[in-house]
């Protein structure tokens, strides 16, 4: 048997051409299709895993919310029971109180006239006591007492609370530049004392103020400071008036 090299070479060429055709038009598209399919499978798997995780999170959230609802329901139930019990107790207490009030009304009516008379006597006695106290304070009033009250006023001014400072600073800021702060004293104040008051007011108000000082013997002893709409009292006249008003309200 004689080998035909030409035929053999042509067969090899045909085979290589066939391999190239299969490689180009069959193998690569098939592999690309398989790769694409595998990629879609991975994406679908990842999406399915994500959906599963989301579903698990929703399930846990739902179970947690159910547990919270159960706790809220139980708490509301206990609260309602407590409120009902409190309401029943309050109703019983009001009933007992009403019964006791009915028994006490007669006694109250009988003692009302006596109480009113006693109140009038107490007010008259208090008014007389205030009058005598005012007369005594007028006799005791002196420049030294005014200076002592001013020192106390300066100490109290430095110890004002935040809310009181805010009120004073608001009143100070509302003043126009040419506005004066009025300071009335029962006795004349020396320059050093006036400077101390001016500096203390400026520090408390948070701005430079221009106090005007005047003497007012009607204050008995001490001073009265007016900063716009804010008034500061540290004198015997205002203290007596305050206690007199409080006694009337009582």
TrEMBL record:
Keywords: ATP synthesis, Cell membrane, CF(0), Coiled coil, Hydrogen ion transport, Ion transport, Membrane, Transmembrane, Transmembrane helix, Transport. It is a single-pass membrane protein. Pfam families: ATP-synt_B, OSCP. Residues 34-90 form a coiled coil. The chain crosses the membrane at residues 6-27. It is found in: Cell membrane; Endomembrane system. CDD domains: ATP-synt_Fo_b (cd06503). The keyword Ribonucleoprotein does not apply. PANTHER family: ATP SYNTHASE SUBUNIT B', CHLOROPLASTIC. F-type ATPases have 2 components, F(1) - the catalytic core - and F(0) - the membrane proton channel. F(1) has five subunits: alpha(3), beta(3), gamma(1), delta(1), epsilon(1). F(0) has three main subunits: a(1), b(2) and c(10-14). The alpha and beta chains form an alternating ring which encloses part of the gamma chain. F(1) is attached to F(0) by a central stalk formed by the gamma and epsilon chains, while a peripheral stalk is formed by the delta and b chains. Belongs to the ATPase B chain family. Component of the F(0) channel, it forms part of the peripheral stalk, linking F(1) to F(0). The b'-subunit is a diverged and duplicated form of b found in plants and photosynthetic bacteria. This is ATP synthase subunit b. It comes from Methylomonas rivi. The lineage of its organism: Bacteria, Pseudomonadati, Pseudomonadota, Gammaproteobacteria, Methylococcales. The gene is atpF.
